[in-house]
Design goal:
alpha/beta; Rossmann fold; 12 helices; globular
Length: 405
């Protein structure tokens, strides 16, 4: 991808060039990649949120499904997943750990930026976090969303969260929020997955499973097909599944190629992208195939073992603990397959280091040619493109960190 030089007026950041709401001067004109260094007061870690006790579960699920009119009786069906783990999603604790790890790494590098953390669906809410930051005098924030890929729910909705937090707190014109580029193919995000796949393949080999009897299933959250087609900039023409599918496929391919070159994987070991955690009505097309459906088919294809890789997830939150550790592993047992679920990045040192790299990259306006990336799709955009990641059902709501709409 190339970064066209901004016009002189856009580079000046004058009011007439304001294409990106709530942005700092380096981003307000809408460059694909910023070319001017930028000072920030703090980093804003944005999460999904999760319940931390049995009494939180239904209120949390009401927040997640707000505006969709889903009765509590239906929500209770999903609540059983959380109740299985005491009503606690591990996602909040993970974000506490990630926040601390990033802060420690930044301090190690001599960067004394506070790290604020806020959620979309549960306390601490982003609105409260942005207000807290502003009251402390931190009004120039660099956002890090806890999702690596392009889609409405994994990128644009976080940008809408930033905009809503500014508008609902009355801080428009006071607080500015930019966002680091999507990090699906930065080395530190990919490395933990590659290590997990290598360990799984070695484990199967130690048990006498031949390479051509092993399948690697890279799993990510399914989304509506119409949203997937609109993920990422339409100008890229990435085809069926849009940027969402293309990014996952590129990373999965990179991992397998990397392991084959290192002698840790065989060319005979097949891999593919699968989906999980579908929640839409049966009449609405979502991305397929489903991970459990594919596992059930593998014995007829000669498979004896399967590695399930949670490629779409930063940490072991509920979709990993329930949909993969419970349901996918049960499907593998029923199919008579040896199976393992590999780790998520969590607070792996390489991942934390890459997050710090992304923060420094944006502060310093690192030239595009010097930005680390492992696939031909990267480095991704600093400022999301017009109409990027539209939600078909909702249309466009105000969003930060991207060119309107």
């Amino acid at each position: 991808m190339t970064d066209p030089s901004p016009s002189s007026s856009a580079a000046s950041g004058g009011p007439e060039t304001t294409q990106v709401p709530f942005a700092t001067e380096a981003s307000i004109g809408g460059p694909r990649h910023v070319s001017a260094p930028q000072e920030y007061d703090a980093v804003l870690l944005a999460g999904f949120g999760g319940p931390e006790g049995q009494d939180d579960v239904i209120p949390f699920l009401r927040n997640v499904t707000r505006g969709r009119g889903i009765p509590d009786e239906r929500l209770e069906e999903v609540a059983t997943h959380y109740r299985h783990f005491g009503g606690v999603s591990p996602i909040n604790e993970h974000n506490r750990q990630l926040r601390q790890a990033i802060e420690d790494e930044m301090r190690r590098r001599g960067l004394d930026l506070p790290i604020y953390w806020g959620n979309r669906n549960w306390a601490p809410y982003l609105e409260d976090t942005v207000r807290e930051a502003a009251e402390a005098g931190h009004t120039r924030l660099l956002g890090v969303a806890t999702s690596a890929y392009s889609s409405y729910s994994s990128c644009r909705q976080y940008r809408e969260d930033f905009a809503r937090a500014i508008l609902d707190t009355g801080l428009e014109g006071v607080v500015r929020i930019d966002k680091v580029r999507q990090f699906f193919d930065v080395p530190g995000f990919v490395q933990p997955f590659a290590e997990g796949v290598a360990d799984a393949l070695q484990g199967f080999a130690d048990q006498g499973v031949a390479p051509d009897q092993i399948r690697v299933l890279f799993a990510t959250h399914s989304i509506p097909s119409a949203d997937a087609e609109r993920s990422g900039p339409q100008e890229l023409g990435l085809g069926e599944g849009g940027a969402y599918a293309a990014q996952h496929l590129a990373v999965g391919g990179q991992i397998m190629e990397q392991l084959r070159e290192a002698g840790q994987a065989s060319a005979d070991t097949q891999w593919e992208l699968v989906y999980q955690s579908r929640s839409g009505p049966p009449s609405q097309p979502w991305l397929e195939p489903d991970v459990c459906d594919r596992i059930a088919e593998l014995p007829d294809e000669g498979a004896k073992a399967v590695a399930v890789v949670p490629l779409g997830f930063l940490s072991d939150h509920m979709e990993v603990l329930w949909d993969l550790d419970e349901e996918a592993m049960e499907a593998a047992e029923e199919a008579g397959l040896q199976a393992v679920r590999t780790p998520t990045p969590g607070v792996h040192a390489a991942f934390v280091s890459s997050v710090a790299d992304l923060i420094e990259e944006r502060m310093q306006a690192t030239p595009v040619a010097e930005r680390p990336h492992l696939t031909d799709l990267g480095p991704w955009f600093d400022v999301c493109r017009p109409g990027c990641c539209e939600n078909v059902r909702r249309g466009f709501s105000p969003a930060a960190a991207g060119v309107k709409p």
